[in-house]
Amino acid sequence: MMSNKPSLRVLLASTRRFCAGAVRAIELVEHALANFPGPIYVRYAIVHNPYVISAFENGV
Fold first, then answer.
1. Which of 4, 12, 15, 27 has its CA 20 to 30 A from that of 57?
2. Would 51 be classed as within a structural domain?
3. pTM, whole model, 2 decimals?
4. Burial class (CB in 10 A: 0-12, 13-18, 19+), 33
């Protein structure tokens, strides 16, 4: 069975670390941790990355 469809070329994009908003949120929390006595509370998860959240929770 022959197909007259042209061949397709698939390109996979490389992953990105964080968007600009997530980078800013992480920087703000890091700044607060470095400049104010703890504990520091954040109302919601600043990023949707369990590794980053865990690192902040564990003081890493």
1. 15
2. yes
3. 0.60
4. middle
